[in-house]
Amino acid sequence: xxxxxxxxxxxxxxxxxxxxxxxxxxxxxxxxxxxxxxxxxxxxxxxxxxxxxxxxxxxxxxxxxxxxxxxxxxxxxxxxxxxxxxxxxxxxxxxxxxxxxxxxxxxxxxxxxxxxxxxxxxxxxxxxxxxxxxxxxxxxxxxxxxxxxxxxxxxxxxxxxxxxxxxxxxxxxxxxxxxxxx
Length: 182
Known about the structure:
Number of helices: 10
Number of domains: 3
Distance between the termini: 67 Å
Shape: rod-shaped
Structural class: mainly alpha
Number of strands: 0
Largest sheet: none
Radius of gyration: 24 Å
């Protein structure tokens, strides 16, 4: 069902027969409205990136034109913003102990432009000292869990764990030297 504003914008009048052109415009408007409603439902579940919404709409067999129109409406309304999504996502990942490299990779997988993702991650990880403290805390926690393992095995496992979480090898090495020395 189309909102009355969309019907009026199409120039449709009750009682007048639709010609082929008007019927095509009506069909396109209905597909765009279906895509918009599907996108709103997606966003109601959780925040999403533009690329992710487009991909999901295409999976639902929405036409590219309808999906683009729906995304455009959501962006114009301020409901879909890759920059805000990336900052929120990066903050959430940082709070859960993920490093910049992993967060960038995850944002790229969600379809966020590389520059937008890098800016968001840089903004969130601006405090170098805080990040090193977080890595150290993760390493200490992991070291306590592996207390009975030989030193070499424990070092490899902690390093692998931290690197999978997206921390740079130089930071991991620096933290491991501190954590395993104590």
